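User: Okay, second chain of the day. Same drill as before: sequence in, structure tokens out.
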Amino acid sequence: LAKPQPTAVNNPKPTKPQPATVSNPQPQKPQPTAVSNPQPQKPQPTAVSNPQPQKPQPAAFSNPKPTKPPKNKHSPKVGDIITFSNYEWRILHVQNKQALLLSDLVLETRPYNIKNTAITWEKCSLRYYLNNDFYNKLSDKSQITQKTIVNDDHPEYGIFGGNRTTDRIFLLSLEEVVNYFGNGNSDMSILKNDGYISDKNNSKRIARDTSGAAAWWWLRSPGYFSGIASFVSNGGVVNVIHYSVSVVGGVRPALWINL
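Assistant: Same drill. Structure tokens below.
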């Protein structure tokens, strides 16, 4: 009989076991992931969470700009001396937020009219000068208001006073100088016999020129004939008989302003 041989199945040749990759894996150095161990980042400020400081701006209503105080500390009244357009003026009358002003001094000397002729305030050269050259020298023209000026006939001699005029600058009339310097108490009837008014109000009508000397000054009313204009003497006497219109006399402009 033949000797039996073992089969590969029944008596396999032992082999060296190999470790399974799954059951005994080689250790691996763990690598940090971006999620579990992110690299530290320098934080950046956002406009919302850390805005740049802004310089505060004052609100218009909380800190308004200072305004200039009014020119007059009190309401102007008759008799006050005020400065207007670089001249000193006396307030003669106040009504409806307007004031009638008369220059406190005799500002200059001029003839009532250049030519010695029969003339009225409407046509005389002095009216033209005051409402053009003199007016243009004033710095506060916007306050000056035009007025209709009544030019009455002479109250005693009946000499024609001329048509009404519209003026910015004018002279006082006989009636106005008596009313504003003496409250109308002067007796104008004496003009017919004497040709002048000299009374207790003379001192109120005296005016001085820019040098300080007493000076006579023109009125716009006619004198005792049409070639003569009325005036106030350097002693304050109201006179209607002496000076012809071409004589050089003192000028005290009058005007109305808005207050």
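The longest strand covers residues 87-95.

User: Thanks, on to the next one.
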